[in-house]
Amino acid sequence: MQELRNRGVADIDDSALARALYSSDASLYRVVPQVVARPRHTDELLAILDASRATGVPVTMRGAGTSIAGNAVGPGIVVDTVRHLGEVLSIDPEARTAVVQPGVVHANLQRAAAPHGLRFGPDPSTHPRCTIGGMIGNNACGSRALGYGRTVDNVAALSVAFGTGEVAELGASAAGVSRLVAGAPRTSTTSRGQVP
C-alpha cells in the first residue's frame, strides 16, 4: 500500500471491509485482494501499474463486478474504475462515436447517446450496472448481438496501458472511442437467411 501512496495514488483501501467487498463478483469465485485502488485519473492508473511491477503484485482491473466468470477478482491490487473514471467525455453524432472512460456505466452511455438517436450496440442483461471497460474485457454482447454485434464490433479505438507501463493507441486516431449505432439494428446474413 505504501508503494501506491509513494506514487501519488490517493484513493486506496486495504481494510478488511474493502477487501471483502472486492473479493467477489457475480461469479462463484472468491479471491481476497491485498488492496483496492480507485485511480482518479490515468496518471494514477499508470502509477498503480508501476507499483505492481516494482512489488511483483498482480493487478486485476474491475468495472462493476458483473462478470460471471470471475474476471473482476484477483489476489493483488484490484483497480476499481467506476468511482472516478466513469464519465462519457464526448459524443460526436456525425461520426457516431463517443469518447468514454473505462468505468462509465453502460446505461449512462445509452442515456447520453439517446438524444442523438444513437445507442451503444451491445446490451448485456447487467446494462444498468456493467461498465464499458468491463464489457471490453469480457467482449460482452447481449440479447441483440445478432443485430448490433458484440463489444469488439462496436469499439473503434482504445487507449491501452500495458503492465509494462507502455501506453498505446489502438485502432482509429481517437482514444477510448466506442462506436454508436443509429436507430435500427444492422441486418446479418446467416446460413438460414437474414436475422434482424
Helix-strand makeup class: alpha+beta
CATH topology heading of the largest domain: Uridine Diphospho-n-acetylenolpyruvylglucosamine Reductase, domain 3
Q: How many domains, in number, for the residues? A: 2
* Element order: H for helix, E for strand: HEHEHEEEEHEHHEEEEE
Q: What percent of residues are in strands?
A: 15-25%
Instruction: Kindly report the average pLDDT value.
Output: 87
Task: Give the overall shape, derived from the CA principal axes.
Answer: globular
Report on this structure:
22% of the residues lie in helices and 24% in strands. The chain has 196 residues and is α+β, with helices and mostly antiparallel strands. The chain has two domains: 2-80, Uridine Diphospho-n-acetylenolpyruvylglucosamine Reductase, domain 2 (2-Layer Sandwich); 88-192, Uridine Diphospho-n-acetylenolpyruvylglucosamine Reductase, domain 3, CATH 3.30.465.10. The strands form four sheets. Strands 1-2-4-3 form a four-stranded mixed β-sheet, covered by helices on one side. Strands 5-6-10-7 form a four-stranded antiparallel β-sheet, covered by helices on one side. A two-stranded antiparallel sheet has the order 8-9. Strand 5 (88-92) and strand 6 form a beta hairpin. The protein is globular, with a radius of gyration of 18 Å.
